[in-house]
Amino acid sequence: MNSIQVIVLNFTETRRRSIKLWKKIPKDYLYWKPDKDAFTSIQMIRHVLESEHLFHKIIDNRGNLGDYISPWTDLKYIDLEFELEMAEKYRNSFLQMIYGLAESDLENIKIERTEVGQSKKLGDYLNRIAFHESVHIGQMLGYLRTLRMECSVIWD
Fold first, then answer.
1. Any bridge partners for residue 113, and if so which?
2. Taking a C-beta distance cutoff of 8 angstroms, is the pair 123, 7 a contact?
3. Count of CB atoms within 10 A of residue 140's CB?
4. What DSSP character marks residue 14?
5. What are the φ and ψ backbone dihedral angles of 121, each rounded to 5 degrees?
6. How far apart are CA 106 and CA 43, in angstroms?
7. Angle of the 80-99 helix axis to the 3-22 helix axis, nearest 10
8. Which of 21, 9, 78, 89 minimizes the C-alpha distance to 49?
9. I want to staple 106 with a disulfide (CB 3.0 to 4.6 A). Which of 47, 92, 123, 135 is the partner?
10. Measured between alpha carbons, how far is 108 from 60 in angstroms, rounded to an integer?
11. Which stretches of 9-141 are assigned E, i.e. beta strand?
12. What pLDDT digit, counting tens, does each position of 19-39 carry?
C-alpha cells in the first residue's frame, strides 16, 4: 500500500466505525446532550460530516476559506439516514480528491490558514482531519455510556 491508499483506508475505517456507533443511538436520544453547552447527538453527527466538507474546501483553497457557505446551512435536523445521505456526495468528492493526489503532494502542498496561525503539510493536515472525527467518536462513546446504553464494538 502506498501513502495515499493508507490515508484513504484511515478515513474509510474511521467513518465505518463512526456509522457503526451512530446507528446504536436510539432515535429518542438524537437530541440528548450531556450539558447545556454540548452538542446533541445529531448535532455532533452533522458537525463531523459537515466539517469534512469544510476541511475539503480548506484544502482546495490551500488554506483560508474566504466566503465559504456550508451546504448544511439552515437544514433541519431529521435523523441519521438524512445526515448520511446529505453528506454522501461530499464524502465521495473528498475521497476522490485524495485519490487524485500524488504521494509527493503530501509533503509539498502546504495548507496556510493565516486566520488561525496554522501552516501544515497536506499529509499532516489530512491526518488531523481523520483525528477530528476520531475525537468525536470518543465523545459519542461517552454520551452512550453516560446514558447506560449499549455501545458498538468499534475495535473489530
1. 118
2. yes
3. 23
4. H
5. -70, 150
6. 31
7. 180
8. 89
9. 123
10. 14
11. 110-113, 118-121
12. 999 999 999 999 999 999 999
Rounded to the nearest 5 degrees, what angle is found at the Cα of 77, between the Cα atoms of 73 and 83?
Answer: 85
Where do we find the cell 483553497?
Answer: 61
* Contact criterion met (CB below 8 Å) for 111 and 118: yes
Q: Which three cell numbers stand for residue 45?
A: 453527527
At residue 84's C-alpha, the angle toward residues 120 and 132, to 5°, is: 25
Question: 64, exposed or middle or buried, with CB in 10 Å at 0-12, 13-18, 19+?
Answer: middle
Using alpha carbons, select from 107, 106, 143 the residue that is nearest to residue 31: 143
Q: Which of these, 156, 139, 133, lies nearest to 39 by C-alpha position?
A: 139
**C-alpha cell belonging to residue 14:** 474511521
Cell of residue 71, nine digits: 451546504
pLDDT for residue 150 is more than 90: no
Question: pLDDT tens for residues 46-99?
Answer: 999 999 999 999 999 999 888 899 999 999 999 999 999 999 999 999 999 999
Stated pTM of the model = 0.94
